[in-house]
Amino acid sequence: MVPHRGGSVVTGRLLIGAPASGNGKTTITLALMALLTSQGKRVQGFKVGPDYIDPSFHHLVTGRPSYNLDIWMGGEADVRRTFLRHSQDADISLIEGVMGLLDGVSSDANWGSSAHVAELLDCPVLLVLDIHAMARSAAAIVKGFQVLAGDATLAGVILNRVGSARHAAMVQSAIEQETGVPVLGFLRHDESVILPERHLGLVTAEETREDSRRKLDVAGQLLGENLDLDRLWRVAMADEHSELADPLPHWSRPAKRPRVAIAFDRAFNFYYPANLDLLTAMGAELLWFRPTLGERIPLGATHLYLGGGFPEEYVEDLVQHPGMMRDVRDRILSDGLPTLAECGGYMFLGEAIWSHGQRFPMVGAIPMETEMTPSLQELGYRELTVLSDGVFPSGSRFRGHAYHHSKIHRASGLVSAYAVSSARAPMAPEGHSSPTLLAGYSHLYFPSAPEAVRAWLEQGLD
């Protein structure tokens, strides 16, 4: 952090974008985070869009939770407030973009895109270019982004998958000659620093912590060998920013403190930090447990939150703990523990998960079975309207996201939890509900409906 003449502080900020997914945004973002943290810098990560996995790697490298900046789910005010609040005590904030720099909600404008976020936050853009099998043509790509980026400032380029120093020099010369945008460095192609992937993207940080940390430390060293770090800092600190975050709303706290049990392990780890922050701001105590290790819902829990993840990858671990699953079922069905389950948590509460043709019995709190499929079943934003009073009041409207490779294999007696409005289906029913359970494939963004979240926390405290 650098003192501001007026007495406040100013921190560096960069948004790391690319022409498309697969160009190396995540690799360069994580390598840069690793490089800067190795030098003792306080780095705050952010992620444009609704993704869970990339922010988990930001957290692994920086030691700080990484927050989503999603204009569609939270609105511009939420994005600005989130960024300012969590960047204030950092030396630099690195925002990893989503998809291509200009890809947002519409193909006709930049609304909701990484460029929109950069413009909103007055954040310089660092463009990552995969230049494998490319030379002078790279300049045309940069030139095109200069034209279409609107008021977002394209301040620098980092080259990825570089074949040699000579290759990098050729591309740098072309870009700087034709666009005036400086090339700040490059990363050679190196198979040893590639992180493992599966159908939803990278294998999560929670599953690969030690190996991923080692690879990212190496990636940071490799990037540092060919990066003009002084120039990068000048770009990041080019403008003075002394904005202060708006204060959080004050939430009156229940007379009895809610104690929310949250499943968190290799199988269940998809939680927006903003959701957890809202729970604690409303007075909740968060109690963590690990179902894959057979840990039961903590004693004294008044609520249960089962997030998404990859339970299908750990069904063999889960079925080793039938006592844990009986306990979850009893706490929900017999004790009436107010429960929210999203995506992987929804599948876990069903009667079984089918994977590779084999049936694995699950909790049995929801009358359905799910099966994994080779093809993507759902991807995109959705707006949800709660259909009946229960965990949330009837009519509550959330914004959220869905991304899954499973489908309902068989079901009987499901009671739809909410109506989903998405690009694919207006107001389609989804999920399952009871007076004390709401479950479905959608991941909810709590700041989009805080009053409904407050109503959930007040449930069952009498």
UniProtKB/TrEMBL annotation:
<feature type="site" description="Increases nucleophilicity of active site Cys">
    <location>
        <position position="443"/>
    </location>
</feature>
<dbReference type="InterPro" id="IPR029062">
    <property type="entry name" value="Class_I_gatase-like"/>
</dbReference>
<comment type="similarity">
    <text>Belongs to the CobB/CbiA family.</text>
</comment>
<dbReference type="InterPro" id="IPR004484">
    <property type="entry name" value="CbiA/CobB_synth"/>
</dbReference>
<feature type="active site" description="Nucleophile">
    <location>
        <position position="343"/>
    </location>
</feature>
<dbReference type="Pfam" id="PF01656">
    <property type="entry name" value="CbiA"/>
</dbReference>
<dbReference type="Pfam" id="PF07685">
    <property type="entry name" value="GATase_3"/>
</dbReference>
<feature type="domain" description="CobQ/CobB/MinD/ParA nucleotide binding">
    <location>
        <begin position="17"/>
        <end position="200"/>
    </location>
</feature>
<feature type="domain" description="CobB/CobQ-like glutamine amidotransferase">
    <location>
        <begin position="259"/>
        <end position="448"/>
    </location>
</feature>
<dbReference type="GO" id="GO:0005524">
    <property type="term" value="F:ATP binding"/>
</dbReference>
<keyword id="KW-0436">Ligase</keyword>
<keyword id="KW-0169">Cobalamin biosynthesis</keyword>
<keyword id="KW-0067">ATP-binding</keyword>
<dbReference type="InterPro" id="IPR027417">
    <property type="entry name" value="P-loop_NTPase"/>
</dbReference>
<dbReference type="GO" id="GO:0042242">
    <property type="term" value="F:cobyrinic acid a,c-diamide synthase activity"/>
</dbReference>
<keyword id="KW-0460">Magnesium</keyword>
<dbReference type="InterPro" id="IPR002586">
    <property type="entry name" value="CobQ/CobB/MinD/ParA_Nub-bd_dom"/>
</dbReference>
<dbReference type="GO" id="GO:0009236">
    <property type="term" value="P:cobalamin biosynthetic process"/>
</dbReference>
<keyword id="KW-0315">Glutamine amidotransferase</keyword>
<comment type="pathway">
    <text>Cofactor biosynthesis; adenosylcobalamin biosynthesis; cob(II)yrinate a,c-diamide from sirohydrochlorin (anaerobic route): step 10/10.</text>
</comment>
<keyword id="KW-0547">Nucleotide-binding</keyword>
<protein>
    <recommendedName>
        <fullName>Cobyrinate a,c-diamide synthase</fullName>
        <ecNumber>6.3.5.11</ecNumber>
    </recommendedName>
</protein>
<comment type="function">
    <text>Catalyzes the ATP-dependent amidation of the two carboxylate groups at positions a and c of cobyrinate, using either L-glutamine or ammonia as the nitrogen source.</text>
</comment>
<dbReference type="InterPro" id="IPR011698">
    <property type="entry name" value="GATase_3"/>
</dbReference>
